[in-house]
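Need Translocon Sec61/SecY plug domain-containing protein's 3D structure for a figure. Predict it.
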Amino acid sequence: MKNYMMMAQPILALLPEVSRPQRIPPIKERIMWTAAALFIFLICCQVPVFGARPGQTSDPFYWMRVVLASNKGTLMELGISPIVTASLIMELLSGVKIISYDVNDKKERAVFEGIQKIAALFITAVEAMAYVSSGMYGDVREIGTIMSGFIVLQLMLATLICILLDELLQKGWGLGAGTSLFIATNICDTIIWKSFSPSTINTGLGAEFEGAIIAFFHLLVSRSDKMRALKEAFYRPQLPNLTNIFATLVVFAVVVFFQGFRVPLMTKSRHAAADRQPYMIKLFYTSNMPIILQASVVSNINFFSQILSRRFGQHNFLINLLGRWEERAYSQSGQMFPVGGLSYYLTPPATLYELLNDPIHGIFYVVFILFSCAIFRSFG
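Structure prediction for Translocon Sec61/SecY plug domain-containing protein:
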């Protein structure tokens, strides 16, 4: 298999690549490169896909956009999903010895990384074509074949930019891993926007500010019943509310606390069996990569399940086994939710009522998360 991999070198030479620095850059320069990479990523998260005509269509990545650092309707529509999926596939093939390479050999490692790039671009093309053909960007007949192909090309170019930015950070020019920083940046951007967004949305009860904090002050000033206004600011169902913000802060504080938590692991010397020393390991030793891999797998299952369900209807047994989808009264812009099949059990309960109504769903989801993350960690 090594020979087949090396045969791909002429094709890989056509792909752009970030070279490693000849010296370790000073910290100020690394901060500058990191800031530049994140700035480019944020721009891609805001630039809409040219030629798309999005309407009130369901979002297949609705549940996983935060983890996959993606933004609906923009160049970062697919986020890091193709990159993570390609990495997972290549690592699985390497783990079962279908693909073998020497990690210490620079040429073989470069070829392996190059093939992984091609795999990520191929996955992007497949997902983008599925997006376009399913009508996510409007009726294909109205968009036209040329514009449909241009939309696919835009998403592939965005994935390539994401790959190069990830390479830039991982090869020593920046700080940290690209995928983790992209996720953190996307989360921070989402929190700030949903807290302070000045845009207004008509919910049927009049125009309301999207930002939870701005809406809080607006409701207190504009409503005569202050207690009702306060309750609405904390519990409004279809827009960000103060409960969401406080819950986010609590989760953040808990994660920071456990991030610094150490567990002593007693070790003993080979030469002196009686000499036992504690070795401190992080409680979060596995980091966030298993969660990212698990989210990527689930997002792809839900993505194709929802597209197949929409195209072939609800009367195909195999498609229903993969997932049944329905729109709910409180859904946003025609958003579909899984109500049966594999996709239903792979997604968390949407509300506390759903959890109490179907506790098996919640138990299965927790067990699946723990089991799948443990498996993905074993490949890391």
